[in-house]
Amino acid sequence: MGYVESLLADGEVIVLRTRQHWLSVFINGILGWLFGAGGLVLLVFGLWIRGNGEGLSGTFGNVTSIGSGIIILVGAALVAWRIISWRNQDYMVTNRRVLKVEGVLNKRTGDSGLEKINDAVLDQSVVGRLFKYGDLDILTAAEQAIDVFKMLDKPTAFKRTILDQKHLLDEELAFHPTPPLRPSAPVQPGAGPAPAPSATVPASAPTDPAAVTQTLNQLADLRDRGAITPEEYETKKAELLKRL
Predict the structure, then answer these.
(1) How would residue 143 be classed by pLDDT, with cut points 50, 70 and 90?
(2) Which string of DSSP letters, residue by residue, matches 145-171?
């Protein structure tokens, strides 16, 4: 099991997985690219001096060539580290939350529960629309940004997936009052696994025939998508019909 998979709760699945756009390697690793370009210029200059001079000029050319080689190696190391860091990024939407995992040796993980997300604000420049990247701010109900994804690859698909999964989770939580990821009380040692939430219809379930029909259709949709089991569907269906 990989590091990312170890972060998932029971029943949690990854719906979309991405990272920053590949252009971020060039933009965020600009220092390494400048070192590499400067080292190449210095190397050419050193070789020219060494080929056209003798004595002190030749010695200076040798020193310049060695120094340029070191600068090129430093630049290459910086670029390589940036590429490795980019490869170790994991920006994910699951059926329960939005996850951000970064870091090569030391991992930094942040997550935002879908039930807490109110909106996702996308900011794309003309260049961003052309190359399909942008900045995405995840907002709470208080309109506060709880997470920011810079230069996100294919941000429109990422945002759409967040909103779709939030809608599905809201429908599921309407029939599962207990949050699926965080139990309300810790399980005592030796007490065994916590009991699963009962599949009951809320007390405010509709009694109007048209409303009952609509609710049954929603239940059938949840059953077909695997959000509830067929047994739960039949139980809830029977409870709804008793209210008529």
Answers:
(1) low
(2) EEEEEEEEESHHHHHHHHHHHHHHHHH
